Inverse folding.
């Protein structure tokens, strides 16, 4: 749950979200996969010192981006002490859910219970039906989305500690009585699973499963209203369904935003003049009409006012800020410092308390 003080609104959390791009191109600070991985760790360490609440990574296969999150998250967890570590999101079509449950628990234990595990059906792929190369394909009459939810069901039960495996009568090591489950287990991880939802219908399903809601800058539906209002409606559908399901804990909700305050000549050289990105866009994605949220680029005071009026930002407890990771650690730390100093206070954020 978000931090609160008497008579005050809940404290908003902010985190950075990196795609982990790497490419040997002019101007890139992440020319190799090693650069992208090691710089993500360094940025997380620096962000924690700044008081930022979360370090999150996107996961994409068959692309020069981050693809195997758990070694990276474990490394961040070992180098930090407070900041949340997370994914946004892991494509469950590609996952062996039992092996994933083991890896997630190990990373969470190394981090002392700070893993926020974002999962989903996934985004459009780099290759056609890439999950088939990983050894998975939908059963007859099943869609790839069905398969992702089936994998998710197995993951949830494994993380909850389900014991289902028949023990060997002559094991290498003594077994406790009864069926066995995956090890290790990390207490509390089940409550820190999130589903990346792109519609109001999947937001309702997310609540019914008892997962937190993660919503990005893309919704795979369009009703004609501004993006932030449609996303706020999605959040309300989720919270109403959560109440109806009778879950006893308070859920968390995150939204993603691209926020670039222009405070230096370098900022303006990189990102100035992008007026076409400051408006919602509507298009067709995988045959479905989708709405893309705008980017927030401009003078800090203007961005602060705009974000304070963003309905979904106000409705969420966590805002994930996408970072241009190929520009390097120093520039991205400057970006986070600018947001922390000039923009984030307007949406209810303050630096994380020491030791939290």
């Amino acid at each position: 749950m978000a931090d609160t003080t008497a008579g005050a609104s809940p404290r908003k959390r902010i985190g950075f979200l990196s795609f982990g791009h790497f490419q040997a191109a002019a101007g890139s600070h992440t020319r190799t996969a090693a650069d992208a991985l090691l710089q993500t760790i360094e940025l997380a360490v620096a962000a924690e010192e700044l008081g930022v609440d979360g370090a999150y990574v996107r996961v994409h296969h068959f692309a020069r981006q981050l693809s195997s999150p758990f070694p990276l998250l474990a490394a961040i967890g070992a180098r930090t002490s407070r900041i949340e570590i997370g994914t946004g999101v892991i494509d469950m079509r590609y996952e062996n859910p039992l092996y994933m449950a083991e890896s997630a628990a190990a990373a969470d234990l190394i981090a002392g219970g700070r893993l926020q595990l974002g999962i989903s059906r996934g985004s459009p792929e780099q290759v056609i039906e890439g999950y088939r190369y990983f050894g998975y394909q939908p059963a007859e009459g099943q869609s790839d989305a069905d398969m992702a939810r089936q994998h998710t069901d197995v993951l949830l039960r494994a993380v909850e500690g389900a014991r289902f495996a028949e023990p060997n009568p002559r094991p290498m090591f003594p077994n406790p009585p009864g069926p066995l489950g995956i090890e290790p287990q990390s207490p509390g991880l089940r409550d820190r699973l999130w589903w990346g939802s792109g519609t109001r219908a999947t937001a309702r399903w997310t609540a019914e499963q008892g997962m937190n809601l993660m919503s990005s800058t893309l919704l795979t539906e369009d009703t004609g209203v501004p993006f932030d209002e449609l996303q706020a409606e999605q959040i309300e559908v989720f919270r109403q369904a959560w109440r109806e399901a009778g879950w006893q804990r308070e859920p968390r909700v995150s939204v993603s935003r691209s926020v670039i305050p222009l405070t230096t000549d370098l900022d303006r050289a990189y990102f100035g003049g992008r007026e076409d990105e400051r408006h919602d866009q509507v298009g067709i994605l995988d045959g479905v009409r989708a709405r893309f949220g705008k980017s927030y680029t401009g003078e800090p005071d203007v961005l602060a006012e705009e974000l304070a009026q963003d309905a979904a930002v106000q409705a969420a407890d966590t805002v994930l800020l996408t970072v241009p990771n190929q520009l390097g650690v120093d520039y991205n730390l400057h970006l986070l410092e600018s947001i922390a100093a000039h923009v984030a206070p307007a949406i209810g954020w303050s630096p994380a308390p020491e030791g939290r």
User: Anything to note?
Assistant: The longest strand covers residues 13-18.
